[in-house]
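Task 17 of the worksheet. Students: predict the tertiary structure of the chain below and write it out as structure tokens. Keep your answer in the requested format; marks are given for formatting as well as content.
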Amino acid sequence: SFTEWELMEWSEQQAVFNFLYDSMTLTVVFGPPIADEFFAARPSRSILSLDFESFLDEEQAPPSSCLVHKLIFQFIESRGCWQKKCPKLCYLPQALLDISLVVNRCKILGEELEFLQRWGAKFQLLETDIKDTEVKLLFSSSVAFAKFELTLALSHDYPSAVPPFRVQTHIGNIGEKEIAAVLSRVPAGHHYLRRTVTSIHQNLLQGPR
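Model answer:
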């Protein structure tokens, strides 16, 4: 269920996989066959290199797409030399699964951000701003007499790890202490960002504090 890749080429020399609507490519360069070793009923091959490339036009792409690519490549770089982890063909399925899991999580994050940018007003979310790998959420509620910014520092571990945050209060008494109390009740996991926004809206923005 996490096959996020599409095979574009498979030859004696290399295999090419596309991810994220052809905006990212993995090229696997094969070495010579390995004696007396088989994979999928064919002679196994050594792997000389795994090269990742992004084709995203960052000037034209929406900020959410840029963030998704930054986090995916953050994960790729965090793993060090992929050829050492995937020296021959039998290791390739696991490498593709590892990449697919991160691509899937980051793709869902991109969908969350697009949702908040479109429907944030329902949650008193005035603005969703993305800079590098940080997401700034600007809340404003006349009922609660409050206006504040919540900035989340995201990483490729999202949403399995709760991201660090900081708060800037513009109007009212809602600050870091109040936000931290709400976030402590939002567990890491699927749609963490949306659940965080919903929880803040329900617990802090429904009336005066």
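Marker's comment: The beta strands are 5-10, 14-19, 24-39, 42-54, 125-131, 134-141, 146-153, 165-171. The helical segments are 63-78, 82-85, 92-119, 176-183, 192-204.
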